[in-house]
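Title: Prediction job returns without error message
Component: structure pipeline
Severity: low
Priority: P3
Assignee: unassigned

Description:
Job completed but the reporter wants confirmation the result is attached to the right record. Sequence as submitted:
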Amino acid sequence: MFGIPSFFLFFFALSMALGLINDWSYLLWVAPLLGLLPVWRKIAFFGASDKRIAVAGKAVLITGCDTGFGHSLALRLFSLGFTVFATCLFPDGEGAQRLRQEAGSSCRLHVLKLDVTQDQDVAEAKEFVLKNMPENGLWGLVNNAGIMLVGPIEWISFDECKNVIDVNLLGSIRTTLTFLPLIKKSQGRLIFMSSTFAFIERGNIFYSLSKNALEKYGDMLRHELKKFGVKVSLIEPGNYALATNIMPLHTIEQFWNKFDEETKASYSKTYLQSFVSYMNNQRNNGMHDSKEVIDAITDALLSQRPKARYLVATFREKFLTYASYYLPGFLKDLLFFP
C-alpha cells in the first residue's frame, strides 16, 4: 500500500514535523521530492521479476468460499492448476454446490466445512488437508472469511462485537496458527484479506477495528517468518459490497426495533434515516466486479516477489486511505467527521 506515494508523503510529513515547511515554502520541498520519484521507482523495483512460481503439485486453502472473493478465487486458482481446499461455512449451500459442479470429476478442488470460530472445525480441516495434500504441499493460506456489521458503537451489542472480532480477526489467527507449520515447510504464502476500512472507520467501527488489528498481525508475521522463506501479503480492497454482498441493504426498523428506550431517546428517527441512507448509498456505490481483487491475491500467491500490501481501490478511496494514515488528528476529523 505504502509505496511511491508514501515515500513522498513521509518526507513531506517529516519536514512539517521538523518545522522545515512554513507558509508557501513547501513548494521548495515538493519540487525536489517529485523529481526524486523516478529514482525511487528504480530503487524500489530494482531486481523485480515477473517470474511466476510453478503451480503443479501445490495446494492453497481458502476460507469463506461460500460467496464473494473466496468463491471467485477458488475457481481462479483451480483453473490455474492449483489443488484448492475451498472451505465453506455451509458445505451443502448453494455456493459450495456450485464449486463442486465446476470441479466435476477433478480431485484438485475440495469443498469442506470450516467455521473459523470453531477450534474443532479448524482441526478437522487440517486433518483433511493432510490426507489429501498434493506432493508439493500446502503453498498458500488465504484468510478471506469475514463479516461486516454497521452502526455507531452505541448501537452494537457486545455479543455482536465479539462475533465480528472472532470471525474477522481471531478466525484468521486460529487458521494461521493451525496451518502455519505446513506453510513453513513449503516456504509458501500467507494472505490476509484486509480492507481500506482498516483506515477509514465510518459507520462500521468493529469491522474497521478487526481489519486494523489484522494489518498489525500480518505485518508482524511478515517480519517473523521472513527467515523461514514464508512471504505474507495483505490485500486491501476498497468498496466491493456489491461484488461480495458483505453489506446488505439496511432499514430504519432493523435498528430502531432493537434499541432500548434510552437509546431511542438519544437518537431521533431523522438521524437514523440519515445514517441508513448513507450506508445504503455506500453499498450501492460498491464495485460489481471482483476481478481486480482476485488478480491481486493471485499475484501474491504466484509472484516470486509479492508485495507486502495490495491496495485495490478507486482513486478517491486511495486518497482517503493515505489521508487517514498520514494526516494529523484534527485534520482527519475535519475530513472524515465534519
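Comment from assignee: result matches the submitted record. Strands lie at 59-62, 83-88, 109-113, 138-143, 189-193, 231-237, 309-312.
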